[in-house]
């Protein structure tokens, strides 16, 4: 019963994000006179939200394949390729990037929505797509944490992947600015260069903190189960 629910959760979530990526890429076309940034260099791939939606699509596809061909055991004797990939993906990118995108978006929306999602975009960016990409990503990543056990791989590798990913995106938004003269996010227009550097440093630090939050939550939720499983396995020998 539980296994079937997990498979269903992974399949539905994969399809949800796959459709969101397809719809956003195909149908959310913003006229140039409404917001020029949407038609600037880079297309949809300017936005971290879009990158994360692709990441979540890939992650839940891997989860689904692992349900079918791998294992969701708490402490598997031999981890399949899909299980190892799933654990690495979730720890290094799946959890921290999803939570980073969701939390920073809603915090900035609360401060001033014009800094992240101007009202002028409402006719072109539907509310359900906004919540799929900025709310559901947090919900589904937390449900994944609760429903399915994982083994966090080596911390240094995970942090290396996460920091490399975020720095790559940071370089990318500067390439976009160099090519088009437009900042991807309006908040950057109101910041001076020193404040912009501080802003990026704070965001990167926050993303790293989110990694440790994910690791801690995983230990809280699954740590006792992992310990009990090891003890019972030792007794059976």
How many helices? The count is 7
Distance between the termini: 29 Å
Q: What does the main sheet amount to?
A: none
How many structural domains can be distinguished in the coordinates?
1
Return Rg in Å. Answer: 20 Å
Uncertain segments: 233-237
Number of strands: 0
Helix content: over 70%
Class by alpha and beta content = mainly alpha
- The averaged pLDDT comes out at 89
Query: Could you say which overall geometry the principal axes of the C-alpha atoms support?
Result: globular
Measured by DSSP, the beta-strand proportion falls in: under 5%
What does this structure look like?
It comes from Atta colombica. Keywords: Membrane, Transmembrane, Transmembrane helix. This is Androgen-induced gene 1 protein. It holds the Pfam family Far-17a_AIG1. This protein has 237 residues and is mainly alpha-helical. Helices cover 72% and strands 0% of the residues. It has one domain (2-236). The longest helix is centred in the last third of the chain and has 44 residues, at 193-236. It is globular, with a radius of gyration of 20 Å. The chain starts with a helix and ends with a helix. 26% of the residues are buried. Residues 233-237 have low confidence and may be disordered.
């Amino acid at each position: 019963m539980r296994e079937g629910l997990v498979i269903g959760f992974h399949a539905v979530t994969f399809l949800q994000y796959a459709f969101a990526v397809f719809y956003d890429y195909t149908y959310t076309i913003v006229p140039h006179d409404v917001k020029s940034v949407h038609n600037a260099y880079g297309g949809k791939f300017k936005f971290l939200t879009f990158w994360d939606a692709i990441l979540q699509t890939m992650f839940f596809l891997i989860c689904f394949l692992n349900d079918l061909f791998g294992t969701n055991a708490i402490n598997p004797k031999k981890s399949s390729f899909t299980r190892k990939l799933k654990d690495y993906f979730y720890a290094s990118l799946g959890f921290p990037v999803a939570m980073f995108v969701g939390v920073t978006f809603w915090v900035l929306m609360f401060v001033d929505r014009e800094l992240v999602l101007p009202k002028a975009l409402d006719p072109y960016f539907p509310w359900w797509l906004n919540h799929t990409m900025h709310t559901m990503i947090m919900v589904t990543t937390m449900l994944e944490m609760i429903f399915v056990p994982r083994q966090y791989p080596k911390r240094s590798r995970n942090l290396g992947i996460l920091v490399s990913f975020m720095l790559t995106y940071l370089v990318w938004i500067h390439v976009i600015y160099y090519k088009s003269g437009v900042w991807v996010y309006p908040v950057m227009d109101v910041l001076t260069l020193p404040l912009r550097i501080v802003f990026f440093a704070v965001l990167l630090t926050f993303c790293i903190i989110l990694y440790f939050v994910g690791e801690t939550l995983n230990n809280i939720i699954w740590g006792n189960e992992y310990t009990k499983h090891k003890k019972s396995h030792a007794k059976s020998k």
